[in-house]
Amino acid sequence: MNKILTAVLSIATAGVLAACGSGPAPRSDGGDAGGRLTMGFSQVGAESGWRTANTTSIQDAAKAADVDLKFSDANGKQENQISAIRSFIQQRVDVIAFSPVVRTGWDAVLLEAKAAGIPVILTDRAVDTTEPDVYVTFLGADFVQEGRWAGEWVVKEFASATGPVNIVQLEGTTGSDPALERTSGFAEAIKANPNLKVIASQTGDFTRSGGKQVMEAFLKAHPDIDVVFAQNDDMGLGAIEAIEAAGKKPGEDIKIVAIDATRDGMQATADGKFNFLVECNPLLGPELMDIAKKVVAGESVPPRIVTPDETFDQAQAAAALPDRKY
Ligand code: GYE
């Protein structure tokens, strides 16, 4: 708990300092000579349905906002993100935005951007840093809350259990902000009932194949799994395949709670294979473009911008599915 609090405080402090401190001098033209803003964006990769929707949202929003977007896909590797950011600095873009694959190890490159006077916006995922004034704001969901909602559903679902309830957890990418925070939010919530036990937890790297593989191993090692907590839809969908291949019924013999609420996840929930879904909205593009324009024009923005999410049970997922945008 202390660790989380420290992380939250240090993020908040870094943000406040960035917002109020001696950040890069604003450009009076709000962008390049023609007034067109240039943004360098480093994306994590294409590991999940969520990520694909996030990329499309950013690319579409850049077009709509007349932002010249230099988009770079890091293929899941931090070193690729660092080189992309260095190349954006060299190209002297107006603003850099990125979704950091992991939380640590960014200080050097963030300080380089700061020295070059280029503002940085974190989108989707946060970083751990004690350096002041190295990013302006962090736009993204409250991952601890998402994990908590998933855990609270398990608490309710098994409220009348008299014996142990065996939970397995499919973790996201090791060291990533959502994996760390969803794990802690979930753990915090299930403490409410001592019968609830996470008997195995391993990373499936936020991919469908990763989720399937880890679930296959879990099923072999533990014949008595009651619940799967999949930290994203794709790993949950992989788990469905593994459970069905083992001759069990996902959603009935083994309950599944997942996070993201992409169309595929909503479909699995409407079909009765997932039991509960926590949303994480990937459509960050339009807000990111607005923030970028403000930052480059020298206007102040809040150091932390939380995107709102909701939850879906099976009936709610079936009702929401026809209008789902991602
Ligand atoms: O939940 C997962 C993706 O960072 C919120 O990354 C994002 C997570 C999302 O791969 O599907």
From TrEMBL:
<keyword id="KW-0732">Signal</keyword>
<feature type="domain" description="Periplasmic binding protein">
    <location>
        <begin position="41"/>
        <end position="299"/>
    </location>
</feature>
<dbReference type="InterPro" id="IPR028082">
    <property type="entry name" value="Peripla_BP_I"/>
</dbReference>
<feature type="signal peptide">
    <location>
        <begin position="1"/>
        <end position="18"/>
    </location>
</feature>
<protein>
    <submittedName>
        <fullName>LacI family transcription regulator</fullName>
    </submittedName>
</protein>
<dbReference type="GO" id="GO:0030313">
    <property type="term" value="C:cell envelope"/>
</dbReference>
<dbReference type="GO" id="GO:0030246">
    <property type="term" value="F:carbohydrate binding"/>
</dbReference>
<comment type="similarity">
    <text>Belongs to the bacterial solute-binding protein 2 family.</text>
</comment>
<dbReference type="Pfam" id="PF13407">
    <property type="entry name" value="Peripla_BP_4"/>
</dbReference>
<dbReference type="InterPro" id="IPR025997">
    <property type="entry name" value="SBP_2_dom"/>
</dbReference>
